[in-house]
Fold these 2 entries.
Entry 1:
Amino acid sequence: MIVEDLWKADKNNVLMDEIQSVYVSAENIQQRVIELGQAISRDYVGKNPVLVGALKGVLCFMADLIRAITIPIEVDLIAISSYSQEARQKGLVRMVKDLDLPITGRHVLFVEDVIDTGLTLNYLINSLRARQPASIEVCVLFDKNQHRLIDLPIRYKGFELPDYFVVGYGLDYHERFRNLPFVGILKPEVLFNRRQSG
Amino acid sequence: MDEAPKKVQPVFIHPIEEAFARILNFYGVEWQYEPRTFPLEWDENGNVIEAFKPDFYLPQQDLYVELTTLRPKLVRHKNRKLRRIKELYPEVNVKLFKRRELRNMMLRFGMIEEAERIFGTAAQEKD
């Protein structure tokens, strides 16, 4: 049994009740992640890259990707304030968890779960570039380019997503659904009901 | 010590524009509000009879952004203007954000109230 079947077989699963349909299956995600890992392994031979991910959406992708990479790598995580009510009052995005590893002179591969407007990625890449790595490239699993405001070169891309509100495999809606093993389209009524129920 | 001059906040026509500007500010992206009008049609005397003024210009991206909360059926006129801009000013980059795209953007940024206020309920959207 694969993990997606486990979810579908659970008839009392409240999260599945809020999913309209599966858009990218767990199997397809796993296959694509393996392909990305193989490409990265080929391109970075002898470079000992640092893979950097931004919490929290990247957790599932990062965990699977690093196990599909067959060369020596190092991993680090970064976190910035989201556009929450509190952060909005403070006015500007800020880093809430910095890297632990120095990246000056290192080959950095920034790993991202989804790129939408490009605003977050642009901020993070600029912040990392200021530390003068030897190179910096982007690997993204899901690209939603309909909303793109800031174009950034993407070296490794998993899937292009249409303009649906999707969740799962790290993508959340109000911190829920990250643990779905697939990417699903949320039922429209869930989008606005969360405020009343949660 | 002289203080840096504060940016004068423009008077936004629609609340979605103000919300969009706040998001850009949060991520430190430079923007201008309605800085340029593009003439689209002229009469026989050369007078401009139709023009288009995109809502935002992002100078670092050299990108104009137009936001619309009109229902899909009513966006036709705006789409026609954008096609005309591309014909007359092929060097100009304009991106149109439609109702559903804006709603999803607001929701992604956790702005449920803004999304609700501007777009109404999901049931209304099915009209």
Entry 2:
Amino acid sequence: MRASFLLTIVLLLNGALSAGEVSSFRAYVDSDLCARLILGPITPSRVECSQSTIKDGSQPVLVQLRNNLVLAVNKQKMIRPFVGQLAEVTGEIKVQNGTAKLQSVNPITADSVPQGDSARKLLDVRAYRTDRSAELHEKIRHELAMMPYISEFDFISFSQMGAEVILTGWTIRSTNRSTAYNVVKDIPGVETVINNIEVLPLGSFDMQIRGAARAALQRNLSRYFWGSGSDIKIVVKNGQIILLGTVTSKADSDLAFIQCNSISGAFKVFNMLRVHSSQNKGA
Amino acid sequence: MRTKKNGLSCLAAALMTVSSCSRPVSQDSARKMPAGNQFSGFLSTYANLKPNPAFENTASFVSQDPTKNLHKYVAVIVEPPVIYLATDADEKSLPDRGRIALAEYFRHSIDEAVEDAFPIVQSSGPLVLRLRSAIVGVDVGPAIPTDQKDGRSLDRPINIGKVGVEIEFVDSESGEQIAAAVDRQNLGEGAMVGSANFSREEKFRAATEAFDGWGKRLRNFLDSAHELSKDDIARAEATNFPYASETSK
């Protein structure tokens, strides 16, 4: 009797908490990888990125046109056919954790978005080329670089347009998501912060891959690893490895890719390492 | 059929929710602080501890080994806290329900304090620490009169007024000590626990505040251990450039 009463309360609470408001919005159907790495207008190169990384196994996500918010969806099948296209979407959005529960998805063209509509923002290349204060950009970069709990397995990046900052990336610690938001929001000159940092689950399968990937890279490319972090970021999500960061040569980038590709249990390696030969990597 | 399936999955989810609210704590009986000893003997080693100027009445250790330090771990298994009675306390008079309530609430305080920085997992692995903790110096008061008791009241109140805390993080696979602290800061001055439900009773608020205080000190200890060194700051500054801005130019 007591158990069934408790159960009823739990179910009622669960229902009340999960109920959200249904809304319609315009979105770009992207891949998770491109959505979190290419924060900018929908250009042909972005569409190409979306379509090629989806084929390689990245998950489809929605990018809300009016504010660049990345939304993981409950039914990926509904949006997968429209990757690289715009869509009118109806569903429940949860901004706090960046998810959407879909009801309907219909493809649209860019022309159907009225001039002056806030959803045109992501379609206008000019918005991304103006009004970027170098000083403010450097302050944001510095604050994010100084976050104490960033490890080899966290990648946090940002884009700034005027007073608006879009945070992006993946982290294994929820404190990094909230700390990044709080430090950036408190920087004078920043008015709006969109938080697209995804907190990754710590399933034992992915944890094994993380451990093996770090061990392999540290063994072969030790100069990129230092006391509390590394120049190479190893993002692991559902058996996929995304390599990010900077190395000094193409050979090192290739070596990192080969090492990660040989890790047991890793389905796919996306090598997004940048090569900057001028950088001094120390001993 | 679909409705029935949904109903079953709701039931399973609800049962999981209910069961996760009451994770098991140690069922061992309480241990006793050895007479004349400075420490309880709970930590795997006390040899590395040194007074920590940043934390009053605390001795601590943080491994500086480049391959085995706190930065190299990303998650933690929180073990059930162990209770150590004061040397002169009567072991038999400590009510089991009270010991379990203390351990459960302390564990709750630890979970709350660390989980956003060190996600809590259940399986050991190369990136996982094991957090071991003990509440040391628990004492037991005189029997509570029958007319002052209710169903949740303990037979005897537990005094945590002189309690200290011993905590260590060990490698979850090898058991090697990575960080440790013996915290003798007395946060429980006058705090008593007279009910198995003490965390929900206003009159035992001093006890819950003391446990939450130790949880916060643990988090501060972790935060201080994660402060970037000068070399790390230079390295992070030199290499941390956003992708997004570059690609959106």
